[in-house]
Automatic annotation (TrEMBL):
<protein>
    <recommendedName>
        <fullName>cyclic-guanylate-specific phosphodiesterase</fullName>
    </recommendedName>
</protein>
<feature type="domain" description="EAL">
    <location>
        <begin position="23"/>
        <end position="277"/>
    </location>
</feature>
Length: 279
C-alpha cells in the first residue's frame, strides 16, 4: 500500500520508536523505583487442601508507578532481568518478605511461612546465600519459615550447580520449592538429588483440568512422582470449586488460586487469616 514506504519497513518505524522510547523510559523509572520506595510485595495465601487453614503466602512483586499505577511483573520483570536490576530488586524482595514475616510473627501468626520467587540470575549470583542469612538474622526469622521458589527451568539449567546452591540454602534451614513444574525438562536423576521440599504444578495443567483428561493424567503422574521423592505438591491457579475438589482428590497437599485468595497488600492479610483460622 501507499503507507508502506520504499523498503516496506518504514510503515512500522514510528510505532516501533514509540515502543522503544516507552521501554527506555520504563527502565529509567525502574532504576529509581527501589530508592523511591515504589516496590511492593503482595501476598497470596496458600491453603492446606481442600480449603484451609492458611499455611503461608507467596510474595508477589508489584511496582506502584507514579504515573502508570500498580504494575504486575510481566510489565517490568523482563526489563529488570535484561538490565541486571533484578539482583538488587531481588535482594530487596528477600529482605522485605522477612521484615513482613517478623511483623506477622509478632502478631501471633508464628506458623506462617512466606515463599519468595527467585529469578535465574539471582539464583546463580554469588551473594545469594549471604543475602538470605542477613535477612533472616536482621529480622530474627526462623529459617524454616522462608521458602525460595525456583522454576524447574532455572533449576535444570545447570543441575549440579543448582544442587550445590540449594544445598547451601537448605542447610540454613530454608525450604526450596520447584516452581512451574511440568513446563521444563527435568532429569529425574537430578530431581531426586535436589534438596527441595515441594513441587508447584504449573497453572497451565490446572487450567484445562476439566476438559482434557490428559492434564488430569499429568497431574496424577506429578503427584505420584512427588510422593516417591518425598515432596509436597502445591497446585497453583485454582479458580473453580471443581478444580479444588479434583486436585484434592488427586493428592495435592496445598492449593493456591483466585478461588481461595487473590494476592493481597500486606495490611489486608490479617483479616483474611482471622477468617480462615477460626479453629
Ligand atoms: P508465579 O511464580 O508462577 O506466580 C503465580 C502467578 O499467577 C502470579 O502472577 C499470581 O498472581 C497468578 N495467579 C495466582 N492465582 C491465580 C489464579 O487463580 N488464576 C490466574 N489466572 N492467575 C493466578 P503475578 O503476581 O503477576 O506474577 C507473575 C510471575 O512473576 C510469577 O509467576 C513469578 O514468576 C514472577 N514474580 C513475581 N514476583 C516475583 C519476585 O519477587 N521476584 C521474581 N524473580 N519473580 C517474581
Ligand atoms: Ca512462584
Ligand atoms: Ca508458578
Ligand atoms: Ca508461572
Amino acid at each position: 500500500t501507499k503507507n508502506k514506504g520504499r523498503n516496506g519497513f518504514s510503515f512500522f518505524q514510528p510505532s516501533m520508536n514509540i515502543i522503544a522510547q516507552n521501554q527506555r523510559q520504563l527502565i529509567n523509572d525502574l532504576w529509581m523505583a527501589q530508592d523511591n520506595g515504589e516496590l511492593r510485595l503482595f501476598y497470596q495465601p496458600k491453603f492446606r487442601a481442600p480449603d484451609g487453614p492458611v499455611v503461608g503466602f507467596e510474595a508477589l512483586l508489584r511496582w506502584q508507578h507514579p504515573q502508570r499505577g500498580l504494575l504486575t511483573p510481566d510489565v517490568f520483570l523482563p526489563l529488570a532481568e535484561k538490565t541486571g536490576l533484578i539482583i538488587s530488586i531481588g535482594n530487596w524482595v528477600i529482605n522485605e518478605a522477612c521484615r513482613q514475616l517478623r511483623v506477622w510473627h509478632l502478631q501471633g501468626n508464628t506458623r506462617w511461612s512466606v515463599a519468595v520467587n527467585l529469578s535465574a540470575l539471582q539464583f546463580e549470583q554469588t551473594g545469594l546465600v549471604e543475602t538470605v542469612i542477613k535477612a533472616l538474622s536482621t529480622h530474627q526469622i526462623p529459617a524454616e519459615l522462608l521458602t525460595l521458589e525456583v522454576t524447574e527451568t532455572t533449576a535444570m539449567r545447570d543441575p549440579d550447580e543448582s544442587i550445590r546452591i540449594l544445598t547451601q540454602l537448605t542447610e540454613l534451614g530454608v525450604k526450596a520449592s520447584i516452581d512451574d513444574f511440568g513446563t521444563g525438562y527435568s532429569s529425574l536423576l537430578y530431581l531426586k538429588r535436589l534438596p527441595a521440599s515441594e513441587l508447584k504444578i504449573d497453572r497451565a495443567f490446572v487450567k484445562e483440568l476439566q476438559e482434557q483428561t490428559e492434564d488430569a493424567t499429568i497431574v496424577s503422574a506429578i503427584v505420584a512422582l512427588a510422593q516417591t521423592l518425598n515432596l509436597k505438591v502445591v497446585a497453583e491457579g485454582v479458580e473453580t470449586p471443581e478444580q479444588q475438589q479434583f486436585l484434592t482428590s488427586l493428592g495435592c497437599n496445598t492449593l493456591q488460586g483466585y478461588l481461595l485468595g487473590r494476592p493481597l497488600a500486606a495490611d489486608k492479610v490479617p483479616e483474611l487469616a482471622d477468617f480462615f483460622t477460626a479453629d
